[in-house]
Design goal:
By secondary structure, the chain is α/β, with parallel strands linked by helices. The chain has five domains: 6-103 and 245-335, Rossmann fold; 106-172 and 211-240; 338-365 and 410-488 and 659-699 and 719-773, Rossmann fold (3-Layer(aba) Sandwich), CATH 3.40.50.300; 491-650, PCRA, domain 4 (Orthogonal Bundle), CATH 1.10.486; 803-855 and 874-1046, Lambda Exonuclease, Chain A (Alpha-Beta Complex), CATH 3.90.320. It is built from 40 helices and 22 strands. Strand 18 (927-936) and strand 19 (939-951) form a beta hairpin. Helix 6 runs parallel beside helix 9 (245-258). The protein is globular and about 100 Å long. It is an enzyme of class 5 (isomerase). One of its GO terms (biological process) is recombinational repair. This is DNA 3'-5' helicase.
């Protein structure tokens, strides 16, 4: 802790009670939260699995766990470090039955949700939201609306109750049925003596009143339609045994709210709770945290309201204020020592964000004002005249007035830890092309001046939206400057992914000419482009599909023999793979195409950054296939393409996850400001700073939540502009040494663009920039150093090793590279599905045994009930075990129905023998599927123990095997896995292992061994040696006929 500042130390060593850490940009937030977690374990002796740490992305959770690893010298059991959604899924898998869910529920993404609604559209009885010409127009909007409901933990019954009340209130106000048509106005007779003018005024008044009543009725019917649609949607999910991502939070919250016994179990377990990025929590997530933290209230939240860029309607301030109100005696610690930027960059960003006052934590905590219950008094709620008067005031005057009114209770002004002065410039160029040229010339100028002190990795170009990156990408290519466009979407637009998807489309319809054209132009076929074009011309002239012309290739003149051979080869693939596509899952068919065509061998033949990128895209596409196969009973090519079409129609371009090696190659980074959150660069360019681009125009939700149902309290003013301002603040604070703000007057179109209002708020004046024509030809600082393949592969080495990984490397280093570094997809195997099914069955079986054999049992509500008599049938019957097996059954990867039935019967036989072998009293495992991490010579080993039983003198470690027992001569290798578990039991679980057992379910015969200290030390030495070899390996293949013949990668090796 010697390198930490006093505020960081104070935050890390806070002993008990609620703690609010306000962590500004670059103040070491991640260091503090990971060091606190490690301090609680090592200094306060809190069990690792008694601490819950929640964050928002898998990457952040992984980074947190990795950092904690390095701080803990000894092993430990699995940390509960995860995203909110992963945590809730884990809870629900264990307790789904307690709230009427199925434990093996399927998790649906937005595409799955849209398909579910489309396929059941008639059940929704839509009228307002089902236009005749486009009945599915509002499906995506309704799904987003349901998601918003779940952000606020609004259940369908609550929405229905609100809708019904709205209808009843309307009936009471009007006291009579009102026509739904605005054109059906009663004529009425004017009283005698009424002038024509008066009569006309009264008629208009009556018309206006009837119009208003009709509008109110239409609105009431609209709300009722949405409420009923929400209810129907939720019922469909439950009927299908599915949840969406919003359900993970709301159902976990419902579980805790309605099952006190389960809530108390987790309250007792989690002695401390830590929440990262607290400013991004929604209402439901915060409720979940609150209910778990009480009554101990050992809750630490870390956040910065000024960096809330994902939260809807500025609820970050409301949540942080609510935190202090909900948890009395909260200790506040503000981290202000910045280890990233220069002081002038920090001052600029601080002055800029003052424009969000008074809706900032700095002001709110000082003024004591509550935003709860306030209505907006900003421009949105004012009349046109007032808005014009506000617009007439200078932005600087408004900002000054806000600052004068602010009474600050805490100071968030960041203090730089460097004495250097940063560079801040604003450029306004005539055209977009000149703006881009100025950016590129500045990059080359800095690179030339700094020489070897910096790399292209030190530069970032930040855009407001992905679409704005295209022009910069094209220019960087022309300038021969290495770049990397980091986007979280666009998988389906990647060339190799398009190749695979178009081939699958071709299998579904040979006459899909655009798809066939793409395949014919693949380099692996090597067909000259003029000959492909000749085929296209013939197809058009004869009004035939390209496939029909291709089939006649031998009868056509003017084509080279090589072209004829390539087309006939393609025709052979189509015939073979079409047969597969009728019965096999989409992933198996896609993999066969990659193997048979040689495309997989081609893309894996080199391990430079470009080829590794292609491998990554293939991996991610096959993960999409895998997820599809899990969710669908008939995961065929046809059904997948149908889902893909729905997804693309809904705007889904495929999510992209960046692999570890992608962080390495030297390249200018291009990304959105959102994507830059948490990153830092020496030189930052925030580009396209013009009106309507940054800040963007507010895009309201297509279907908004009624204000009466919104639990979040709205801040004052224009919340959209405030959110954009926070996003801009995040962009500025990414810069370490220089930040360049750029804009142009001409982006195409008839009118010149106005500079962004943020430029005026910054108080910057445009600097004249003179372009150096011709500089864009190529970089002048010599060739760029490209990392070699081994460097890139070593960046892909996992932070943890497992027994499976180590064995794979020992068998063949190249096999290890393909399987664990490149993660090349392989055909699914029946043994994998079957083994996972059996393990899940026994896990759920013993969970039920433990639950039912509790000495002092309670019902779900915590009430004492009589102890269950211990007999086999009373604990868990054979019939129940079969039901558990059926529920756990994985249907994938069997060659055919016959093989599936064979394995299913085999599983029943395994379980029957196992069940009959259990003697009373039944074992009550003290742990099941217990995760652990241990350290061997500085390297981390991760694993999971199937079962731990308490026996005389210590514990018995049990591992299930669905395979046959290996020969006696392989006994030592067989024991290595159990030796790792024994080490874990001592180091991580602090238990004494005395017996190590394999249960081979094929015979139900247990093979038990005493703990042999010498053998364990030998295993430890062998593991160290293997890891050392991995770290320095060139991953060359091991020449072995036996290994190669059974290797999944033999076709590409």
């Amino acid at each position: 802790m010697s390198s930490l500042n006093p505020a960081q130390k104070q935050a890390i060593t806070h002993k008990s009670g609620p703690l609010l850490i306000v962590a500004g940009a670059g103040t070491g937030k991640t260091t503090v939260i990971t060091q606190r977690l490690a301090w609680l374990i090592s200094d306060q002796k809190i069990q690792p699995d008694h601490i819950l740490a929640l964050t928002f992305t898998d990457k952040a959770a992984g980074e947190m766990e990795e950092r904690v690893d390095k701080l803990l010298p000894m092993g430990y059991v699995d940390l509960w470090v995860s995203t909110f959604h992963s945590f809730c899924e884990r809870i629900l898998r264990d307790h789904a039955l307690d709230i009427g869910l199925t434990p093996d529920f399927k998790l649906l993404d937005e595409t799955d949700q849209a398909i579910l609604m489309r396929e059941n559209l008639d059940k929704f009885e839509l009228n307002y939201y089902r236009p005749l010409g486009n009945p599915t127009k509002f499906v995506a909007s309704l799904i987003k609306h349901f998601s918003r409901c779940k952000d606020e933990a609004i259940r369908p019954e609550e929405y229905l109750k609100y809708a019904e009340k709205l209808k009843l209130d309307l009936d009471q106000v009007h006291g009579r049925p009102v026509s739904h048509s605005k054109s059906e106005h009663g004529r009425g007779v004017a009283p005698q003596g009424t002038s024509l003018k008066e009569e006309g005024a009264q008629v208009e008044l009556r018309k206006k009143k009837i119009d208003e009543e009709a509008d109110q009725i239409v609105e009431s019917e609209r709300i009722n339609e949405i409420a009923n649609a929400y209810h129907t949607y939720q019922q469909l999910l439950f009927e299908k045994g599915a949840l969406d991502f919003g359900d993970l939070i709301t159902q976990a919250l419902y579980l805790f709210q309605n099952r006190p016994k389960i809530l108390n179990k987790y309250r007792e377990q989690f002695e401390y709770i830590l929440v990262d990025e607290f400013q991004d929590t929604n209402w439901a997530q915060y409720e979940l945290v609150k209910i778990l933290a009480r009554p101990k209230n050992n809750l630490t939240v870390v956040g910065d309201d000024d960096q809330s860029i994902y939260k809807f309607r500025g609820a970050s301030v409301a949540n942080i204020l609510a935190f202090k109100k909900d948890f009395t005696g909260t200790k506040e610690i503000v981290l202000t020592e910045n280890y990233r930027s220069t002081q002038n960059i920090l001052d600029l960003s601080y002055e800029f964000i003052q424009n969000n006052n008074p809706n900032r934590l700095e002001v709110q905590l000082g003024s004591g004002r509550e935003i709860e219950g306030q209505k907006s008094t900003g421009a949105k709620s004012m009349g046109l005249k007032e808005q014009k008067s506000i617009a007439a005031l200078s932005l600087e005057l408004q900002a000054r007035k806000r600052r004068l009114k602010a009474k600050k209770g805490i100071s968030k002004k960041l203090v730089a830890q460097t004495k250097d002065k940063g560079l801040i410039e604003y450029w306004l160029m005539p055209t977009l092309e000149q703006e881009i040229s100025a950016v590129i010339e500045k990059i080359l100028e800095i690179k030339k001046f700094e020489k070897d002190k910096i790399s292209y990795n030190d530069f970032a170009i930040l855009v407001r939206a992905n679409d704005y990156a295209t022009a910069f990408i094209q220019k960087l290519k022309s300038a021969e400057i290495p770049f990397q466009f980091i986007a979280s979407a666009g998988l389906y637009r990647q060339p190799i992914v398009l190749d695979i998807l178009n081939y699958l489309k071709l299998l579904d319809n040979y006459h899909e000419t655009p798809s066939l054209y793409r395949i014919l132009t693949l380099p692996i076929l090597n067909i000259p482009m003029p000959e492909v074009m000749s085929l296209m011309v013939m197809a058009k002239r004869e009004a035939r599909s390209l496939y029909e012309v291709m089939k006649r290739i031998r009868a056509l003149s003017g084509f080279k023999p090589e072209t004829v051979a390539a087309i006939e080869k393609l025709d052979g693939w189509l015939d073979k793979h079409t047969q597969l596509a009728r019965t096999q899952p989409v992933g198996e068919v896609g993999l066969k195409f990659l193997e048979d065509s040689g495309l997989l061998k081609d893309v894996t033949s080199k391990t430079d950054s470009e080829h590794l990128e292609q491998v990554n895209y293939v991996n991610q596409l096959f993960q999409v296939f895998h997820n599809f196969q899990i969710r669908h009973t008939e995961p065929t090519v046809k059904n997948y393409l149908k889902e893909l079409a729905f997804a693309q129609e809904a705007g889904d371009s495929g999510r992209i996850k960046l692999p570890e090696w992608e962080q390495g190659p030297e390249a200018v980074k291009i990304m959105t400001v959102h994507g830059a959150k948490g990153l830092e660069f020496k030189y930052v360019f925030i580009v396209n700073l013009v009106d309507k681009r940054f800040p963007t125009i507010e895009r309201r939700e297509a279907i908004e939540l009624p204000d009466a149902l919104v639990r979040e309290k709205l801040p004052e003013g224009d919340w959209h502009l405030q959110e954009e301002r926070r996003l801009f603040y995040v962009g500025i604070t990414r810069a370490k040494q220089a930040v360049f703000f750029t804009a142009a007057e001409d982006y195409g179109g008839n009118r010149k663009k106005k500079p962004s209002r943020f430029i005026e708020e910054l108080g910057l004046k445009a600097k004249a920039v003179k372009l150096k024509l011709g500089l864009l030809a190529k970089p002048e600082n010599g060739p760029i150093r490209q990392e070699n393949s081994l460097e890139l592969l070593r960046k892909a080495l996992p932070p943890y090793f497992s027994f499976t990984q180590l064995k794979a490397f020992e068998k063949c280093p190249k096999q290890y590279k393909y399987a664990h570094l490149l993660k090349i997809p392989t055909p699914g195997k029946a043994t994998f599905s079957f083994g996972q099914t059996i393990h899940t069955t026994l896990l759920n079986f013993f969970k039920l045994v433990n639950e039912r054999s509790n000495a002092s049992q309670q019902d779900l509500f915590g009430n004492q009930i009589a102890k269950r008599t211990e007999t086999k049938e009373a604990l868990v019957s054979w019939s129940e075990l079969q039901q558990i097996y059926q529920s756990a059954w994985i249907d994938s990867w069997y060659e055919d129905v016959k093989q599936k039935q064979k394995y299913k019967k085999r599983g029943i036989d395994f379980l029957k023998r196992f069940y009959d072998s259990l003697l009373l009293p039944w074992p009550k495992p003290i742990d099941l599927e217990k995760g652990f991490t241990i350290t061997i010579n500085g390297q981390r080993i991760k694993g999971k123990i199937d079962r731990i039983d308490s026996i005389a003198g210590g514990i018995e470690i049990i591992d299930y095997k669905t395979s046959e027992r290996p020969p006696e001569e392989e006994k030592d290798a067989e024991l290595e896995q159990l030796h790792i578990y024994a080490m874990a039991a001592r180091e991580a679980l602090k238990m004494n292992p005395v017996k190590l057992t394999y249960i081979y379910l094929a015979t139900e015969k247990p093979y038990s061994y005493k703990v042999d200290e010498k053998a364990i030390e030998k295993t430890k030495a062998e593991i160290s040696k293997t890891i050392e070899e991995i770290l320095k390996s060139d991953f060359a293949a091991t020449a072995s006929k036996f290994v190669c013949v059974h290797c999944d990668f033999r076709e590409i090796c």
